[in-house]
Write a structure and sequence with these properties.
eight-stranded mixed β-sheet, 474 residues, 16 strands, globular, alpha/beta
Length: 474
């Protein structure tokens, strides 16, 4: 690690756009000084033309889903079922081109992953994130074991592959090691046993999961990686074992994430099994709270929103995935108004573009309410930056100020999408017009990972993505 000084043409500081900003970084990868109105780049500094904002945090990722891009769109719009079909939910009916048919295709990719092929894929996917200005990823990881459920000699081989992949791509990672034990609620306290695809996800019990993830946490000493916890969903972790995961997260001061009410079928099955909504079930077992982030939270009752907001539970919205899978439009504004902090994720990676996720949250709310102006550009940048980092256990990131992690993203203001507006509205231009293609520079811990739109650590990235995905085809 070496110290580096950056001169930003424009920078987003404390919610406003400043010009001619000098950002100095230290050997520890943190910002040592920030000075606005520096009229010219000093000798030896690196110039960042455009708007420099704090590095963005992708708070919800399934890296292997990137292999599905395009493939799962085949046949969409015809009203016919996807190539592989599956149950809508326990006791439900089959649905054409639904989340549940998509899930069966996804399982087929998951079945073919090994630690080696997952490293190759994740390295390329995380490099794609860096190109999009993402400096930290929350990887919601449940592919723990070999197909069929056999343990690898190293029981954390898959998770360690993801951590190594993030290092080679140059970004930070919070590995949200996920407890996934059952295929559904079943008829008793134990839940239904995992199906053939899900055997590799399961540790058998929450206690066994906690033992394995504790070993992983003890082994990891990488500066770029932290270990968090996740409950896949209320249908995948029996109610009696939810508290074990929460207790592990609290004992290790680790973030806890959970898929929540992404589909109405999950809500209906939970009502049949427990007589309450998934949110109420989590609340009754002590899972909600400021250290917890609910992902999606799409289909909520007024009581659910009150429980989430009243407990200061965070919510991660993934608008492009929620649109792609026809999940629905979540009630993000109501959740925020009741006390939930919002973050953003690209989830299934239909696209990897945090600017699009931020824009979509506002535009989807406009469609839902037929009114405009629910969030300012500054608030949306915060969701994509500081609040996303906090949800992943990196509270020292997401700001351009002395002492913060030196993670930066520079967005062009002279592309065909962004040219024209005055610099004073550069944040609005970035959020409402720019795309991942406008990211020019990405800096992580003071290192220049993406320079002028080119990844410095992973050469020939499109080829790397294509080869890693081709290796997973039948």
């Amino acid at each position: 690690m070496t110290s580096q000084t950056y001169w930003a043409e424009y920078a987003w500081l404390g919610g406003t756009v400043e010009h001619d900003v000098l950002i100095e970084t230290g050997l520890d990868g943190r910002i040592t000084a920030v000075s606005a109105d520096t009229p010219a780049p000093p000798a030896g500094s690196v110039t960042l033309h455009g708007l420099t904002v704090p590095g963005m945090a992708n708070a919800h990722s399934h890296a292997f889903h990137r292999a599905l891009r395009g493939t799962v769109q085949a046949g969409s719009g015809t009203g016919s079922p996807a190539r592989t079909s599956g149950p809508a939910a326990e006791g439900g009916e089959r649905a054409p081109d639904s989340f549940w048919t998509w899930r069966e295709v996804m399982y087929g990719v998951a079945d073919r992953l090994t630690p080696e092929t997952y490293f190759d894929l994740a390295r390329a996917v995380y490099a794609e994130m860096a190109l999009a200005g993402i400096t930290c990823v929350g990887e919601f990881h449940y592919l723990h074991h070999a197909p069929g459920g056999d343990r690898y000699t190293n029981p954390n081989a898959m998770g360690e592959a993801l951590i190594a992949a993030a290092a080679e791509a140059g970004i930070r990672i919070t590995l949200l090691d996920t407890c996934y034990l059952s295929s559904g609620f079943g008829n008793g306290r134990a839940g239904a046993p995992p199906d053939t695809h899900q055997l590799r996800f399961s540790d058998g019990t929450a206690e066994a999961w906690a033992e394995r993830v504790s070993e992983l946490r003890a082994e990891i000493r990488a500066d770029h990686a932290r270990i968090g916890a996740a409950i896949h969903s209320v249908r995948a972790v029996p109610a009696a074992q939810l508290g074990t995961v929460k207790q592990w997260a609290e004992a290790h001061d680790a973030p806890l994430h959970v898929h929540l009410s992404e589909q109405t079928a999950e809500n209906e099955a939970c009502q049949r099994a427990h007589g309450c909504t998934p949110t109420r079930l989590l609340a009754d077992h002590g899972v909600l709270g400021p250290g917890t982030t609910a992902v999606h939270a799409t289909h909520l009752t007024a009581g659910d929103i009150a429980l989430l907001g009243g407990s200061s539970t965070g919510v991660c919205m993934c608008p492009t995935t929620e649109r792609d899978l026809a999940d629905g439009i979540g009630q993000a504004k109501q959740l925020q108004d009741r006390g939930c902090t919002l973050s953003l994720g690209s989830d299934s990676h239909a696209v990897i573009d945090l600017l699009e996720e931020a824009r979509a949250m506002e535009l989807d709310e406009r469609l839902r309410t037929r009114t405009r102006g629910h969030w300012t550009a500054a608030q949306l940048l915060c969701a994509a930056g500081a609040d996303g980092h906090a949800a992943l256990g990196w509270p020292e990131a997401g700001r351009i100020e002395t002492g913060a992690l030196a993670d930066l993203t520079t967005i062009a203001l002279d592309s065909v999408r962004t040219a024209g507006p005055l610099p004073g509205v550069a944040a609005e231009t970035a959020i409402f017009a720019a795309t991942n293609a406008d990211v020019r520079h990405t800096v992580v811990a003071g290192r220049h990972i993406v320079r002028d739109g080119v990844h410095q650590l992973v050469p020939h990235l499109p080829a790397a993505l294509a080869e890693a995905i081709a290796a997973l085809r039948d």
